[in-house]
Amino acid sequence: MDNPRKRLCQRDGESEEETDQLYFNGYASIEVHEEMLMDTVRTMTYRDAILKNQDLFKDKIVADIGAGTVYAVEASDMAIQTRLEIVLPEKVDIIVSEWMGYCLLYESMLKSVIHARDSWLKPEGYLFPSTATLHIAPFVDEEYEDRLGLWEDMSSRYKVAMKSMIPFAKKCISANVELKQLMMEDIVASPLQVCRLNIHKVTPRDIEDIAQNFEFKCYGWNRVHGFTLWFDVEFPGNIVLSTSPFKESFHWSQVVLYLDEPFRTVQDTLIRGSIRLQKGKQPRDLAIQLKYSVDNSAEKEQLYDTGYWTTGVSSVTSPER
Ligand SMILES: C[S@@+](CC[C@H](N)C(=O)[O-])C[C@H]1O[C@@H](n2cnc3c(N)ncnc32)[C@H](O)[C@@H]1O
Fold this sequence. Notes:
Blueprint: H1 16-27, H2 30-38, H3 40-51, H4 54-57, E1 62-65, E2 92-97, H5 110-120, E3 121-128, E4 131-139, H6 142-158, H7 166-174, E5 177-180, E6 192-198, E7 209-217, E8 222-235, E9 239-242, E10 254-265, E11 270-279, E12 286-294, E13 300-305, E14 309-310
Parallel strand pairs: 1-2, 2-3, 5-14
Antiparallel strand pairs: 4-6, 4-8, 5-10, 7-11, 8-9, 8-10, 11-12, 12-13
The chain binds S-adenosylmethionine.
């Protein structure tokens, strides 16, 4: 069964109902819950957010949207009962939910939280988390060079010249949206915000089409292999869960968008561009459009679809283009 957090294959022509069925079937398998619960930083941040706000929780009615392995509102067979169509006997004071997908919005679970908020949360109620921010930055990846170097090595290894494969290998790598744990030294310019969502106010329309311009000034001599995305969420009481490469690692890692053509930078190289996240080919996927130019060179455009998640060299799929 696919891990619903990252579907590794694309299913053309799938309906919304089929996607939902597969999504919830995925969450009915124990592996994905093991992965989430073994992410101690994630789980402990939720625990801290609740314990450090115990005055808010004391004697209050709380709904956990997508409770997973405990008894509450849960749509997969992992739950004893209930879907979001249930009617609660009264409004709730607090909604807790761990809804964040890769790139924040992959999986589309935020829409369920918005639905629950609008249906059940008291006007003065609290949301855990209450804000979410998506960040972007250019990155360098030495492993990318090793992956291309492999084709150069073939002549010494097997006495077969295979350097001509390099352009195709680059296309294959950049056709996928990849998950990778980056380190702070891999980030080559100050990160910027793609969006900041106030969970009390955000609407389904706000997250249908998110577009942001960016302008990065690079730190120095480097090679940029792509752009990476990660998110932070904040809970009441200034408790932050950050999946940034500057912090401890999470099962979310970072999302990396490799470029067809990596480029060199020097101090203050200017990268201008924009990123846009919209619904992908399947209802819970994202289509990502990246445009960028380097020091006022001609603008390049790359498109990505999160139907093509990969987690490294072994699972790179060939591009259709
Ligand atoms: C990321 S998991 C979190 C599980 C658990 N809260 C935890 O933190 O370990 C999200 C859960 O929400 C459930 N879910 C997603 N959309 C839902 C919906 N519309 N109604 C009820 N449950 C939903 C999924 O089946 C999944 O178990």
